[in-house]
Amino acid sequence: MSADALSDVLRTVRLTGAAFFDVAAKAPWVAEQPPPEMILPKILPGAEHLIAYHVVTEGRCFANIVGGEPIAVEAREVIVFTKGDPHVMSSSPGMRAESFAQGKIDAATASQLPFFVNYGGDGPAAKLVCGFLACDARPFNPLLENLPPVIKTGDPQDTDTGWLGQFIRFAMMESADKRAGGESVLAKLSELMFIEVVRRYLEALPPEQAGWLAGLRDPFVGKALSLMHGSPAHNWTIEELAKQVGLSRSVLAERFTDLVGIPPMQYLAKWRMQIASGLLSGGSANVATVASEIGYESEAAFSRAFKKMVGVPPSVWRRRVRSNG
User: What domains sit in the chain, N to C, each tagged with a CATH number?
Assistant: First the structure.
């Protein structure tokens, strides 16, 4: 059974929406996000990787990674910082905040979401919906490894019937009403928004682009990825994969490696370890059961492979993750 590899990765790396802000700002204004290690313990203790996003619902502003070039963001556009890099949002390019208001994160996590924030003076107004997502980065997240640090998408001419217009409309409804379950709705909306951003980025990749996302788009490599994700415990060989996708062994191996960056069997081994890390972190299954679930005939063989790839034995990984959770 084949699988949607992108959905499989998003599910396995446990993409999760977190804190959610409704921002009203008037020029001049500036806000600055600190490094992820200052935020993750507050909003999602134990999470590994931070993704930040900002949707401009009215007006316009500028965004940039600290030290990077400013990017203009118009109403009905979204900008996503996929690596969680420290960045600046401001009414004009080149501005810096004197200090980050850590109190806003503390207040947001202590209150019912969304958390309302006001910035600035008496100049032109802008409104934003901002938030965070988190996911696993280790031992293998092929999506994160292949996304640029910043993605901007959307359409200033988009109407309320478009995908971003719908996100804004539902987000603002939940913000205003503060109904029971609102935090969960906002978190899921954020996850859906991020998935749509990734899909748009994938669709816009140039033909010559390499990487895991480009592999998803290729009809042969994409099918091979889907087959491996659909049955990760299967004893795949390059010969069987090639037969299933309709290429020769050598052509598939070369095409897969050129696009994804590693050979098919190495990719499968890495993906199995990502699945294993999730099973070890979140469940009560013993190491032997985890080994069997991802296609290893013995606990010893799995433990050796896991340590070689991850750097520690499965039992140590489990203890570390649980102690950090």
Answer: 5-203 (2.60.120.10), 213-324 (1.10.10.60)
For the chain, how big is the Rg over CA atoms in Å? 22
207-238: per-residue pLDDT in tens?
A: 889 999 999 999 999 999 999 999 999 999 99
Read off the DSSP letter of residue 118.
Answer: E
Q: H helices of the chain, where? A: 5-12, 40-43, 102-110, 142-145, 163-177, 182-203, 212-217, 219-230, 238-245, 249-260, 264-282, 287-293, 299-310, 314-324
Note the pTM of the prediction, 2 decimals: 0.87
Residues 227, 241 contacting (CB under 8 angstroms): yes
Nearest partner of 91 among 118, 69, 120, judged by Cα: 120
Cβ-contact 311, 272 below 8 angstroms? no
- Lookup: tokens for 99: 């200090």
Cis peptide before 28 (omega within 30 of 0): yes
- With contact defined as beta carbons under 8 Å apart, do 217 and 206 qualify? no
Q: What is the mean pLDDT of residues 185-192?
A: 85
Q: How far is CA 303 from CA 95, 105, 164, 235, in A?
A: 51, 40, 45, 18
